[in-house]
Structure formats: structure tokens, C-alpha cells
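INTERNAL AUDIT FORM
Audit reference: QA-55
Scope: verify that the stored structure record matches its stored sequence.
Auditor: D.O.
Record contents follow.
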Amino acid sequence: MTNPIRSASNELRELLMSAVGRLVSEGKIESVPLPAFNVEIPQDKSHGDFASNIAMAFAKPLKSAPRKIAELITEAVILDGSSFERIEIAGPGFINFFLSKRWFSGVVADVASDGGSYGKTDTGAGKRILVEFVSANPTGPMHIGNARGGAIGDGLCSVLEWAGYEVEREFYVNDAGNQINKFGKSLDLRYIQLCSSDGQALMEKCSDDETLCQTIYDDDKTFPMPEDVYLGADIIAHAKSFYDKNGSSYADKPEEERTSALVDFALPKNIQKLEDDLLKYRIKYNTWFRESTLHNSGAVTEVIELLKKSGYTYEQDGALWFKSSEFGDEKDRVLVRENGIPTYFVPDIAYHYNKLVTRGFDTAIDILGADHHGYIPRMKAAMSALGVDPGRLDMMIMQMVRLVKDGETYKLSKRSGKAVTLETLLDEVPIDAARFFFNLREANSHLEFDLDLAIEQSSKNPVYYVQYAHARICSIIRNLEAEGHSVENLSPDKLDVLETTEERELIRYIASLPNTVDSAAKDYDPSKITRYTQELATLFHKFYDKCRIKGAEESLLKARLSLCMAVKITLKNTLDMLKIDCPEKM
């Protein structure tokens, strides 16, 4: 896989070590163990394309001034046939290296050759990663935080895939426990209401489900509800659908039987809605893992026994406790209540044990909400107690989103008057904008999402700006092809004419994509890709404004057209990574 920056860096290391070996063999320096030294890219381009501190690293073992060592090394380095054309010594002994025009030409040729795979690396080859994200409560619709988590999670999966990892996407369905009990109770109360005389009268008055649901939702006096239930209109809609199918036939059945029937009726519909909304958002999961399978398979009971055998549990006041404080947690945690019912913590432990041991993923990544900071140490403590390396479990905390419209905080949906959900957000803004905007900043940073900017068709809108750069290149290529100038895969020697500052800056940045992918994968930060696309678009516009293509001498025209194609390929690959469309016309 092509990685121009890494190849040049490795080549430079070899050049430097060969030079040192030559100096030793010639008796110009003593033979001492090779010290660790850096090869890096200076922020200031006047300091070269690469720089090394090798002379300074050798100063102590050779008992000599760094600048004197640098002079010896620069004299011994052989650049002929390499990717570098000249060397300079700077300051007390830094050695700066400048890339040759052939290196820049080679980048353009390599991108054309790699095409849709340019930017991919093999850094994670052979390693399996499971990324669990969104995992919204199936008792209701997805909120705006889930929308951000979806974009970040799916973007991270794509980045990891481009870095060579084998990645699986997973949604954890909480279909057991207290929230399902609460869901059942909510459905049951609404169903009984609809079976009442007031409910019958209301159904006759309201001609459609949405009107009925909203009327009941808003009318607290006629249909009061306790505080410990879900109050959304979606609960009413499910109860109404169940009533339409079964009438009042369940009204006289035992509450447990009625509640179970209502949950069995409504929960699959909610889960299907979650899946449909996420597919619309361009997210397709490998697995929808149900919490109930952990209970039904005995995995929850098994993990309790494993923790007991580990020696990190104790009984107190009739409850079973986990000594999580011995692993750095702020306090010990209850595993099984005195009534014999496990806390929510236990199936979560069983779930992560399933990921890392039962299914054998090398790494499991959870993307969690901002209120889950305390969850991390206790789960890592549980893995340690079970003999699982806690370093294999990574948890990303995602901060809140602030929606802004007309310069003010925006909390309500026009359609329902309630909190904005993923579905209503995608009614307001394009999917491309949603996925791009949610990945503009690191997950642990608060995000302000400007709804007006997301639909604005101008360079102020970052996704529009990047997409326009792609469309502009397509237009340039179309227009020149109409005049008989087709894009060709030129050999590097025919690309050597690309030597202006703007051309080299653009090529240098194109060359950095594989390293950017690796960096984004290492840091679990897909926002590095959105920032990369914006900078690439900016550099392209600067190049196009300064470097004439149409009307240029034929060999230069063809070379610049090849550079345009390299930018087009690179832009498309980065946007494809984020599942954002690349329009050819705008």
C-alpha cells in the first residue's frame, strides 16, 4: 500500500544509518551503540521537508559538538538516486532534508495508480475490533446525542477499516431489565386508558392515530400518568395499534400477561424503527446484540460465579459486592441485590466478557454518553478481576450537542413540539451535513450544530465547501476533455514540471493521507479526516487560482490535469470513508 511519507521517512533513516556506518568504517567517528534519534516533519517548511536530531543524539556518546557531528554526517550522506535533493544544517546541529521533484511526481503517479484504495494502510492487519455505538434505549426514539454517536461511531469504524483492521459494528439492545419493565407499565396504562369509556369517546372523535396520540399526550387532566413511566406519544401510538388489533380483549387479563403481550407487540416495532432510521443515516450494523440472550444463555449467572472464584467478591447485608475499589474504582459495587436480582452492572460485565473472551475480539470500543465517566473504571476493574487485560477495552466519552438555529439554542421539533430526534433532524438537514458536522470535532469536545449553516450552500458550510471542490475538479476535467485534453496516467518524469509552491504544497498534503488515516485510527478520532478534507479543498482552490491549466503549454497542462485527478481521488476517498456523497455537479 502506498504511503509516500512513511516511505520517505524510512528511506531517510537508512540514508543516515548508512552515513554513520561509512564514517565508522573510515575511522572518522568512534564505533558506539546507535542512539535513538528522530526523523520528523518540521512545521516550518523553510526547515525542510524532513529533519533529524541524529547529530544531537550522538553528541554525548561521541563526546563531540552536535554541529561538528552534523557536518560529518551531511558529508557522508549519499543522496544520488534517493527521494532527497539537498541537505542543510540548522541551529546547533539539526539536519534538514529537502525532497526531490521526483518524489513529488511519484506521489501523483502513485495516487492515480492506487485509485479508490489510496490512503489505506496495513497498520491494523490481523487485528479484530468490535465497536459498539448508539445502543439507544429501545423504549423510544433516538435523540440528538444518538445522532452524534452514530456519525462518530460509524466514522471511526470506517477509519479503522482503512487502517487495515477487521472491524465489526454492534448495537447493544437493552431488551431486559428495569427499562423494559417501565416500558411495559407505560404501554399497559395507555392501553387500559384506551379501553375506558373516555378512551372510547376520544377514539371516535379523533380520525387518525397521530391526532389521537397528540391529544392524549397533551391532555393530562383526562388521562393522568404517574411519574415513573414513559410519557411519549409513541407509547400511545403503540397502545392504539395494539387496541386496533386486539380490541379490549386484554383488558380483563392478568396484568403480567397483558404487559408481556404489549411489550412483545411494541418492542420489535421500536427496534425495527431504530434499524430503519440508522440505515437511512447510512449505518448498517453487523450485529444487533440483545441483552436478553445473556440472561437466557446463563452468561449472567456464569459471570457472577467467575467473579466469586476470582476472590474479588464479598457478601454484606444479604447482597453480593464486587471489590472494584481494589482496581482503582471510587467504591465497591453491588452485583446481586439482597432480593437475589442482579444489578444492571452484571449483564454489562457479561456482555464485555462475551466480546473479549467468548467472541475473542482483540479490542472492544464503546462510545458512551457524557454521563458515563464513572462507568469506565468499574468495567475495567471487572475485566481485570476476570483475568482480561483491561487495555483491550477502550471507552470513548462523547460530549453533548447544542443545536443552534437563528443564533439561538434550538430544542424543539417543528412537527411534534418535542425534543429533536434523529428522524426529525434528518428532516431538517441533509444526511451529508449531519454526518460531516457531527465529525467536525473530537468526541470529547462539546459540539455546536448550526442548523442554518448545515443547509447553506456556500463556502461557509464546511461539507458544501469540500463537496464543491470535488465538483469543481469534475467540471475542470469535463471541460478540458471536451477540448480534447483527456486525463492520462503520466509517468513520474512527465510530472516533474509540477514545481510551483502551490503544486508542491498540494502534493505534499495529498501524500499525508495514509499517515492521517493511521493517526485517526490510533487516536479513535474521525474528526481528523473531516479536517483533512477541508484543508485539502483549501489547498486545491489556492493551486487552481494560482496555476493556470487551460491555455498552459501542453506538457504542463497534462501534468496539472493529472494533479487535479489526484486531488479528486483523494477527496472522494476521504468522503467515501465518512459515507458522504461526492457530487460531480453542484
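Auditor finding: record pair retrieved intact. The chain has a mean pLDDT of 95.
Action required: none
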